[in-house]
């Protein structure tokens, strides 16, 4: 048979019809086409994951379970059991949709991971190149080649990065079906080119980063290369080892656990109403029943989660109480849960009848035999329940009351309370599942069967197709199977390793801070902001954390392989090697940054404290913090500048102080100044307190002090005044940087370090060249009458310029010789005194002639050498004096 009118997009069905044909199995073939279309989508996704080398064992196992569900559905269609077959098909559709969402979510999540890996790879290559080279083509070449090499190595070796890159390329429009490992590697390299180009454009737009915290941090790291190498190596090994022995994973995890049962055999299906608000349908229940071969079936239905409860109505009057509703198969509940034993008055509702059982607390309000209307309800604006829609189109008849205290002890087949608690039971209405259950959400189904193997096989199919928890009932033993979203952590012993690494890093940084203590104090004297020093060290910690996190993530598979090989060699046991999950990069970054920042925080605060010149950072100033000097209470403010910045500090104070409060200014010849200003106490109207900001010269720096009259030393608002001043003074360094503009024209060569002998030798050479030029000038004067005036002027200018240059050089050398004059004279005086002591000892007969010669000869040679050097210095000075005249 063939369709008369072809339908676009439909498959052609040919079926041989003979004399014995009674039924054409259209439904079977339509179901087969539908099932194959759903499975083909899932299997295509699995093949794409396997093509890029990502391990998809769990996803493939779920796909195989769905294939088994599909075969079961087709078998039921072929036998003509259409209700169970449709239930299996619906379960298949639900399971396939969940698996597709899982894979699509994995791909979408991998896009973010790939972007993070790309940025970290770019940052890693950028920082490593800066640490190795300062500038130039070699820096750019190393950065670019390292970026491409790392991307290529990760693509070839890391299934995680292949999945992440495939997801990112898919987001850019590349079909995943066309991706294999070589194509993926080429795509990743292209992304590397694009990322490097974006970095170049960003650096051109941002301009130079001189003075930026990252630049300062890199400078600190390069100044201590061995310390930086030690910290980076340690942190890299710590991160890699932590990733190898621990893991942090989030996702759907199959959970199997055993519990104690009450003696029933079969399957207990518990539905997650958050994922399926309407619960199981009748068709799905029929399919599960056919799978299990159940002898008896019990069902429980509750109010859908879109509603908060129900309300009762007796015609025109309505009870304002929010109630709960539970529908049960009454005969099943009476037989296996002994529900009839908890009836306080009346009887149990009958299956198929619109009857209800109420708590005994309502016996005084509602009588047996009374009819009630049930309405779905939600909380209103004032918190009171509001009816939304009727549950049934007919009222239910009250046939009895139950005792909540007694019913609360009823257990389900897993020995758990069957109901939600005593309070809920006090406001619960129990009705028959038939006919009320079809208007509610079927939350639980009990299927009793003795064939345990069939129940276990059915459980594997049901849990793959539906979002449910399954309890396999085996008499006194219950095996629970479910899939839960779990955040799992393995490897708690790695915390010890992380703590040791943090302590080691902190000790190294403390040593670095103590080594640079003098430099930090000098920077503080020059006006460095404590926050800048703190931020520079914390930025260094971030750099160390990012670099070590990325490097540790790279070497983690190697460490895992080494641990497996070592365990096999020692015969301890096989170590399972598994690829790192997609989220492992973020886990590594969290470990590296967390350990690095935690270990650097206290040393950074130490640097900040040193830059505050040992002052304690506090808001409240006590009278003991002020010292009394000449009837004034003096407080030292946290600003110390060089004497050359006196005018700059003076202008800054004039800016931060209100002009109307300044009453006087004094500027002194030694560069110090004083500014007098008034404050108005809020509790003393009409009274002014005269204060003075004064600079005090201490060595080569100026200290800023605040002076107030002695009687206001305990003034309660003085702390607020000082705090406001200090808060503004801490911004002085930033303000000063905005006032000056520095431009480096050239870099001066490093000054040559010369000893005394080297200086004297240089002076002899310069003096010899000076005499030679002077001789040429004398000869030029003798030739003046025989040569032209222009030629004479040309040579005279040339020799005079050269002579002036050499005189200036000799003058510079003489200035460098001046510190040696006093030392030479002191050494000559000591040697002469020593020689005189030996001469007197010989004349008095205390030492002999031979001993005298042995002691005096080296002293005389030393004295003659010092005198010669002193004569040479005097000769240089006389040479310069004669040339100046």
Description of the structure:
The protein is an alpha+beta fold and about 900 residues long. It folds into 5 domains: about 25-205; about 210-245 and about 490-615, no CATH class; about 250-490, no CATH class; about 625-740, Double Stranded RNA Binding Domain (2-Layer Sandwich), CATH 3.30.160; about 755-885, no CATH class. It contains 24 helices and 19 strands. The strands form 3 sheets. Strands 3, 4, 6, 7, 8, 9 and 10 form a 7-stranded mixed sheet that branches. It has a 6-stranded mixed sheet with strand order 11-5-2-12-1-13. Strands 14-15-19-18-17-16 form a 6-stranded antiparallel sheet. α22 (about 755-780) packs antiparallel against α23, α22 packs across α24 (about 850-885) and α23 runs antiparallel to α24 (about 850-885). Mean pLDDT is about 80; it is low at about 1-5.
Overall number of structural domains: 5
Counting helices, strands and paired strands, the structural category is: alpha+beta
Strand content: 15-25%
The separation of the N and C termini measures 131 Å
Low-confidence stretches: 1-5
Report the total helices: 24
Mean pLDDT: 78
